[in-house]
Design brief:
The complex is a heterodimer. By secondary structure, chain A is mainly alpha-helical. Chain A contains 13 helices and no strands. The chains are: A mainly alpha, B mainly alpha.
Chain lengths: 329, 278
């Protein structure tokens, strides 16, 4: 692969993101228009209809047009932000997404920040004490937590810390984002933090392992680099070498991993939000899945996929800025 | 050269997997099918652990021990099948993408990367909800969404194998594409693929449980995921009925940790550069 440089690199990344977005449109069309079969048949299932009524229904759904025309109309509407109306809420899907976005960003943002910091710190420490008991304990604990089903961990945390087992009372709310009766800035902020603890802890517990592992292996790699030997030979204290020389370089891949790994975070958010009835996009997706509310499901699918692709583009564009080594022609 | 790593690390994991497999096979002998049917359950609903039911009973009054052991019968085959589907797709795509230089390989890699960044669970659950519900759909939904990491790894391995002299010799002697891929590349990348398989299994079992929890599996089939979904639906959480949640979840964790550990141990042997450094 050619090393990325300048405008050509930028252009290639933007084009590939655009192709990715077209892929999302194609997948949305395939999943929601072709796979479920003829909507006219689904609507009239179990009822006697004649050919003329079927044709009328097909005309109304637009399924009497050739597939290419249908796809064209679909893409135009989707790019204009018209994602249809939800059956269940009888409201525009795009408005629902906008109104639920803030809660998800609040939860996912906090959890990602904490997991990245915690994972990086533990990963760096594990690498510096490679092979020690602490390293082995931390690495295996992180890997074990990574293999735990997110929803199960959430349920167990609710049982133990929110409902309470035996004589131990519940410490945290069982779900939701805030209590309805609370007013005033500080009480609301405290209440929202109180509600955030368990869902956030669940996401962090399952998610910090990957940051730990990547920072650990990057630190190990950097520790054997020549500039580290030079720094040590100059008599720079080991702590300075570690914190000022090695860590900044090792953190670069972790920084991009945050954005690249957004797909996994979205999956985690769907599960955590449905377990904790967190009023965000994940709960919306879960409800849409249970009803099933296909327009809402479709809108959320397109929104999730498109935001993941755009964040990957951001990561691709940020990386050369963060790390001059990839910029070299 | 240091001594070659041995796959001893995978023995405990393998033992755990085999014992769960054995329990699953023996489930009908240990607990008659009637005991785990929704009707004619032997106990009262949602009872805490007691001498008669060491792990308590679920909302139908079935013994949680029986449900957990029968769950292995539901979860393990689905996980194995889904892992087999995803590994097969991954090997096929990775081989072809690595072998066909030029636009075909590039297109395949772009498709792989596209699938890799997408939220897997969202895609799988949408697929499962759009198709007819059932076990086959769950296998398909997991298999179709979980292959990209295998494909990337297989492609990288294919490229290294193709850089070796014997491959050039085979090419010079006029071997065709299928022969080159099937006889010369595939056998050489097989160890790495086999090391990847337990990791895929671990992911597939987690995905099966999660899809079942989201209500996309067949609720009449007993699996660890449906047992947890049932517990959630029956309000086990607010009732504090931890015994309905703990056993199936612990079984999932045991199996995923065991198979992931097995995979990492095998990976250290098959491909020391990629493996997590000890």
């Amino acid at each position: 692969m050619r090393p990325p440089s300048g405008l050509g690199y930028l252009g290639r990344k933007v084009v590939s993101a655009l192709v990715g977005l077209c892929g999302v449109a194609l997948a949305g069309f395939f999943l929601f228009r072709i796979l479920p079969g003829d909507p006219a048949r689904t609507v009239t299932r179990g009822r006697p209809v004649d050919a003329q009524q079927l044709a009328q229904l097909r005309h109304r759904f637009g399924t009497d047009q050739p597939l290419v025309v249908q796809f064209g109309a679909y893409v135009t509407r989707t790019f204009r932000g018209d994602l249809g109306r939800s059956y269940q809420y009888s409201a525009p899907v795009s408005a629902l997404i906008v109104s639920h976005l803030a809660a998800t960003v609040y939860l996912v943002g906090t959890a990602t920040l904490i997991s990245a910091c915690l994972g990086s710190w533990l990963g760096a420490r594990a690498a510096w004490r490679r092979g020690s008991l602490g390293d082995r304990v931390h690495s295996s604990l992180a890997l074990t937590l990574w293999s735990v089903p997110t929803f199960w961990l959430g349920l167990m945390l609710i049982v133990v810390l929110a409902v309470g087992v035996g004589s131990v009372p519940g410490l945290f709310p069982t779900g939701g984002m805030r209590l309805p009766g609370v007013t005033g800035f500080v009480p609301v902020a405290l209440d929202m933090l109180h509600h955030l603890v368990l869902p956030c802890a669940t996401m962090v517990a399952v998610g910090y392992a990957q940051y730990l592992l990547i920072v650990r292996s990057c630190v190990l790699e950097e520790m054997s680099a020549d500039y580290v030997t030079t720094a040590r030979a100059k008599g720079i204290p080991e702590a300075t070498v570690r914190w000022r020389h090695v860590l900044p370089n090792a953190l670069l891949p972790a920084a991009t991993l945050i954005l690249v790994n957004f797909g996994g975070v979205v999956s985690g958010a769907v599960v955590v939000e449905s377990v904790f009835s967190w009023p965000g996009l994940g709960s919306l997706f879960y409800e849409a899945l249970t009803v099933p509310d296909l327009p809402l499901l479709h809108g959320l699918f397109v929104f999730f996929a498109a935001s993941v692709i755009l964040l990957n583009l951001v990561a691709d564009l940020l990386y050369p800025m963060l790390d001059p080594r990839v910029r070299r022609p | 050269m240091t001594q070659r790593a041995r796959p001893t690390g995978c023995i405990p994991g393998l033992a755990v997997l085999l014992s769960f497999g054995l329990l699953g096979v023996l489930a009908p002998v240990l607990f008659p099918p009637n005991d785990v049917g929704p009707l004619g359950a032997p106990g009262r609903p949602m009872q805490p652990p007691s001498p008669r039911f060491p792990l308590g009973t679920d909302s139908f009054g079935r013994s949680m021990l029986a449900v957990t052991i029968w769950g292995a019968r539901g979860s393990l085959p689905v996980g194995l099948l889904a892992a087999a589907v995803s590994v097969s797709i991954g090997v096929l795509v990775g081989l072809v993408a690595g072998h066909c230089a030029g636009w075909a390989g590039a297109v395949l890699m772009h498709v792989t990367d596209w699938f890799l960044v997408l939220p897997t669970l969202v895609l799988a659950s949408v697929l499962a909800s759009v198709l007819q519900p059932g076990v086959g759909t769950v296998v398909l939904a997991i298999g179709v969404t979980a292959w990209p990491s295998t494909a990337r790894m297989v492609r990288a391995q294919t490229l290294t194998v193709q850089a070796r002299p014997y491959f050039e010799r085979a090419q010079a002697l006029g071997a065709g594409h299928w022969r080159l891929m099937g006889r010369h590349v595939l056998p050489n990348i097989l160890p790495v693929v086999l090391a990847q398989a337990p990791l895929s299994l671990s992911g597939a079992i987690l995905a099966e449980a999660t899809l079942a929890f989201l209500g996309q599996s067949d609720p009449t089939k007993i699996s660890w995921g449906t047992a947890l979904q049932l517990a959630h639906q029956a309000g086990a959480v607010s009732a504090g009925a931890w015994w309905m949640l703990l056993p199936p979840g612990a079984a999932i964790v045991a199996v995923t940790v065991a198979s992931a550990g097995c995979g990492r141990a095998l990976e250290t042997v098959a491909d020391p550069h990629r493996a997590v450094r000890p």
